[in-house]
Amino acid sequence: MRLQDKVVFITGAGAGIGQAIALYFAQHGAKVAVAEIVEERGRETASMIEQKGGEASFIEADVSSVGSIEQAIAQAMERFGKIDILVNNAGILEYRPFLNILEKNWDRLINVNLKGSFFCAQLAAKEMIRLGIKGSIINMGSIASELAIEFQSHYVASKGGVRMMTKSMALELAPYGIRVNAIAPGVILTDMTKEDLEEATVREEALKKIPLGRLGTPLDVARAALFLASEESDYITGSLIFVTGGFEIGA
Ligand SMILES: NC(=O)c1ccc[n+]([C@@H]2O[C@H](COP(=O)([O-])OP(=O)(O)OC[C@H]3O[C@@H](n4cnc5c(N)ncnc54)[C@H](O)[C@@H]3O)[C@@H](O)[C@H]2O)c1
User: Fold this and answer.
1) Portion of the chain with pLDDT greater than 90, in percent
2) Whose CA is closest to atom 7 on ligand 1?
3) pLDDT per residue over 7-30, tens digit each?
4) Within 10 Å of residue 192's Cβ, how many Cβ atoms?
5) Does 212 map to a domain?
6) Which of 166, 171, 178, 203 is the most buried (most CB within 10 A)?
7) Which strands sit side by side in the sheet containing 31-36, from one edge to the other?
């Protein structure tokens, strides 16, 4: 059990990639704080883990609000006594031409994807430092941390920010033995992308860009997350792991 006795706090763990990470980590022995804005989804993930004999707790959290993050971290600490691993997974995507992005569109997306990850990491790191835990923080970047994508300029800005934020955090938290890394998923079939990928032409276009010739699954991402969470990646910090089937490597 690679995560035996570890406590993991996962944001947006009620669906898609976050849920897959929650279930996979629980399977590997972790106790899971399921931090999620939609109560029904969060409870479902927690009960799926419990049904398999694992330990999990739904914690209501809106990562776009620092007050909500503070409460959620405090609840996790009360329930589990520590946080060893943080997975900053919660994120939203919106398609909108650059020239039509309004202040409210920008604020909503940046507040969830960038501000949310920033303050979750800051508050979780403080608890790790207080308890002397040499933890692991995993931020969810994207292929958009590396490549510009049309009609997603605010999303691309948020994920580019996640990339550099990861490096900065890794530098400042290294003296405490806390590692900070990011994952850049490519095209993963989840609620976020489902509608788009149901269109045959969109799906075919995406597949043409993926050398390994298939779409990604949430489990593909969970496997990389397990590596970054476990001691097998003890000497890795500030890095970005692509889980893309090779999307970014060439034309
Ligand atoms: N699906 C992909 O192809 C893909 C590709 C690259 C990166 N990503 C990134 O992976 C992460 C997960 O994506 P997904 O495809 O699983 O998305 P999803 O939409 O399937 O699930 C996201 C989950 O986050 C929750 N959430 C949304 N806003 C929240 C908030 N303010 N506070 C707490 N929880 C919130 C949602 O309720 C949902 O349960 C995101 O950061 C996304 O940007 C996804």
Assistant:
1) 99
2) 142
3) 999 999 999 999 999 999 999 999
4) 15
5) no
6) 166
7) 56-60, 31-36, 7-11, 85-88, 136-140, 179-185, 240-243
What's the gap in Å between 171 CA and the centre of ligand 1? 26
Note the pLDDT of residue 143: 98
What is the tens place of the pLDDT at every residue in 40-68? 999 999 999 999 999 999 999 999 999 99
| Cβ atoms of residues 197 and 215 within 8 Å | yes
| Residue 250, domain member (yes or no) | no
What CATH number is given to the structural domain containing 69?
A: 3.40.50.720
Mean pLDDT (whole number) for 71-90: 98
> In this structure, is residue 222 part of a structural domain?
yes
- Residue 31 pLDDT: 98
From the CA of 41, give the closest atom in ligand 1. Answer: 39
Ligand 1 contacts CB of residue 192 (under 6 A): yes
Q: How many domains does the chain have?
A: 1
For the chain, the average pLDDT equals 98
Residue 251, pLDDT > 90, answer no
**Ligand 1 neighbourhood includes 56 CB (under 6 angstroms):** no
Does 96 fall in a domain? yes
